[in-house]
Q: What sequence folds into this?
């Protein structure tokens, strides 16, 4: 599968009463695709997936699958847990997805060989290609470039969402020698521009709800080697992304989307708390600065 460009991990909009706001989700999905996103991610971290019940998860995936079908866009669905057997069962039930975003098992810290065995087991059984979600500051499990490359060599593994909180040695080594057919996607909004400059195929970025078209422009600028434009735009997008992540994701992004009238409420579910007004205002200022 060809994974290229900017994918938006959609927030789950809620009403003031805390119910899923399906109409707002559908509008957001169309808006980001209108601005050039290559696809959507349903049930990512940004979706507060851990707090959604089964019926809500089904509604979100069905809605995103319908929109992606209508628009000819790629749908990636977050799935899996730290239990390999149950992850395989969840993947088997995925409907309407083009690929599944599966995090490295969190908390159990199985070591690199355990992570390899987990993904080999899942890739053999999954009806769709897998994207490894590598986010060691959430999972507690680091991976070397060699392990990432071995993951990339597994049949049925299409890419990695690389979110290591920087551009580290493993990222440099991986991007210096990417296995064929394996897409490296930036997963930390702040480091999108440097990873694209190093050869990443694109990104899965919550801040791309805001200024989607500018993120797409950045990926295209690095893709065609327009370093002067890409470098300047990358700095401005990083400043905006930094503001969007000033409080736990997706609280600031929901605050901004609400202030823009794009979702009915900034509500998030516990244990998240809504972002403070100052953080939302700061992100709005950074966003406005992008237009200048
Ligand atoms: O849901 C996602 O996918 C993302 N989650 C990350 C996080 O919250 O750590 C941030 C990234 O922009 C996309």
A:
């Amino acid at each position: 599968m060809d994974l290229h460009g900017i994918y938006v991990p959609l927030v789950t909009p809620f009403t003031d009463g805390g119910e899923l706001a399906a109409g707002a989700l559908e509008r957001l999905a169309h808006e980001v695709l209108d601005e050039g996103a290559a696809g959507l991610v349903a049930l990512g971290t940004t979706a507060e997936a851990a707090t959604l019940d089964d019926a809500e998860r089904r509604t979100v995936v069905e809605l995103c699958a319908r929109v992606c079908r209508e628009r000819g866009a790629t749908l990636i669905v977050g799935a899996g847990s730290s239990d390999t057997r149950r992850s395989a069962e969840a993947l088997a039930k995925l409907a309407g997805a083009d690929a599944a975003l599966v995090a490295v098992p969190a908390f159990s810290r199985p070591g690199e060989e355990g992570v390899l065995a987990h993904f080999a087991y899942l890739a053999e059984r999954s009806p769709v290609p897998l994207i490894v979600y590598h986010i060691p500051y959430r999972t507690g499990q680091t991976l070397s470039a060699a392990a990432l490359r071995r993951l990339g060599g597994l049949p049925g593994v299409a890419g990695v969402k690389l979110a290591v909180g920087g551009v580290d040695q493993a990222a440099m080594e991986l991007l210096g020698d990417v296995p064929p057919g394996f897409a490296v996607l930036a997963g930390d909004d702040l480091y999108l521009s440097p990873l694209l400059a190093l050869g990443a195929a694109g990104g899965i970025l919550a801040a791309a709800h805001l200024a989607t078209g500018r993120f797409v422009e950045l990926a295209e600028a690095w893709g065609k080697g327009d370093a002067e434009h890409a470098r300047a735009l990358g700095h401005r997008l990083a400043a905006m992304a930094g503001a969007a992540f000033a409080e736990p994701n997706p609280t600031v992004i929901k605050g901004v989307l609400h202030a823009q009238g794009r979702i009915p409420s900034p509500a998030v579910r516990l244990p998240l708390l809504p972002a403070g007004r100052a953080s939302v205002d700061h992100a709005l200022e950074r966003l406005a600065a992008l237009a200048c």
